[in-house]
Amino acid sequence: MNNHELFQRARQLMPGGVNSPVRAFKSVGGEPFFTSRADGAYLWDVEGKRYIDYIGSWGPMIAGHNHPAVREAVERAVRNGLSFGTPCPAEVTMAETITRLVPSIEMVRMVNSGTEATMSAIRLARGATGRSKIVKFEGCYHGHGDSFLVKAGSGALTFGVPTSPGVPKQNADLTLTLPYNDLDAAKALFAEQGEQIAGLIIEPVAGNMNCILPREGYLQGLRELCDAHGALLIFDEVMTGFRVALGGAQAHYGVRPDLTTFGKIIGGGMPVGAYGGRRDLMEQVAPSGPIYQAGTLSGNPVAMAAGLAVLELVQAPGFHDTLASRTRLLCDGLQAVADGEGVPFSTTRVGGMFGLFFTAEQVETFDQATATDTAMFNRFFHGMLARGVYLAPSAFEAGFMSSAHSDQDIADTLQAAREALREARTA
Ligand code: PMP
């Protein structure tokens, strides 16, 4: 069965033919391919076509697809059973690993997705402070919990429904939104409503409105604001954790949040999330405290084995330096290609995460990101896809590098980009 036939079947059976919106290619047009196999930096579709993959399952595959160490760890775990419903040793190792690598995390709770992690973290923030309001940033995505689908990024932004129908107004009213990278706006909001704010949640590097880096001192400024008003600072490191640096964005930028959420990499491709932080806060979570949160499959032994294997790999000396230099090679190369073709273009990058923008400006805000030439992006995306390079199918998603991407892969990508840009420019 080819890609088109599968998509036709899928569309009859699943909303948009997919189980997660951005996969449907709705914003870039055309039809998605169906992957049958993945290895290293590559995906192969059901028709046997190979793609250099810059999404890496939206983040988890930082060591490349189907890494032998991860596969073998999973195979070993599977032999002992898929799920126990009791504590298992791998959960303890996972908690030890996370708390050792990320100093702000004194205790952690495993969940099954990034969405669960962020929903649980704000429940804890509300429970611990006795306050109701949450602050988030326009264009940031924290999963699909009701409180977060207000001016959200990622698919919500891509499809023009940043605030979803089905989110009760009473719920949305408790979510205050701010422009990213504007400290004065945050100060003004806290001056007005600071005593009602339970917590402020932020992607310390925004990866769901393309990739936007925090301005110098911005995260520190938010830390100070939260302290001054008794609100909790929550870093959503679902994307950035173990990717922009071993200790995540909080290590890279030197800011210590009260709570942090994780996902993606810590599951190594299995459905995993986690939230953690200050001991005095985490001890308020059930059963040690009254704030309820639970999960049948949380801490699953197979998922823990996959995540631990990846966390082992990213601790190799120089792992993140190499990843960052590969990312630089790609971004600088694309910039040179675009400059050579006379196409207005800019990039952002930190660690193994990057953004590509069809604008001459250096993008630092949501408004700048949404003002870029998305039609040009869509043509470029398809030009790259046709040449076997898979970029995120939306102008509002970050790109992800893995340690499996070779210099040759990057050179091939740049060659494809030269042709695709030439085509996109004249289209
Ligand atoms: N937070 C951030 C920053 C994310 O990027 C995502 C997903 N891309 C989530 C939360 C939600 O994670 P999940 O899709 O695993 O529910």
Report on the structure:
With 427 residues, the protein is α/β, with parallel strands linked by helices. The protein has 2 domains: 3-66 and 317-426, Aspartate Aminotransferase, domain 1; 68-314, Type I PLP-dependent aspartate aminotransferase-like (Major domain) (Aspartate Aminotransferase, domain 2, 3-Layer(aba) Sandwich). The protein is built from 15 helices and 14 strands. The strands form 3 sheets. A 7-stranded mixed beta sheet has the order 4-10-9-8-7-5-6, with helices on both faces. A hairpin with a 2-residue loop joins strand 11 (346-350) and strand 12. The longest helix is centred in the last third of the chain and has 23 residues, at 319-341. The two termini are 32 Å apart. The model has no long low-confidence stretch (mean pLDDT 96). The structure holds 4'-deoxy-4'-aminopyridoxal-5'-phosphate. Pathway: Porphyrin-containing compound metabolism; protoporphyrin-IX biosynthesis; 5-aminolevulinate from L-glutamyl-tRNA(Glu): step 2/2. Its main location: cytoplasm. This is Glutamate-1-semialdehyde 2,1-aminomutase.
Relevant CATH superfamily of the largest domain: Type I PLP-dependent aspartate aminotransferase-like (Major domain)
The CATH class assignment of the largest domain is Alpha Beta
Query: Can you summarize the main beta sheet?
Result: 7 strands, mixed
Shape: globular
CATH architecture of the largest domain: 3-Layer(aba) Sandwich
**Structure annotation, total helices:** 15
Keyword list:
Aspartate Aminotransferase, domain 1; binds 4'-deoxy-4'-aminopyridoxal-5'-phosphate; 15 helices; 427 residues; single chain; Aspartate Aminotransferase, domain 2; seven-stranded mixed beta sheet; alpha/beta
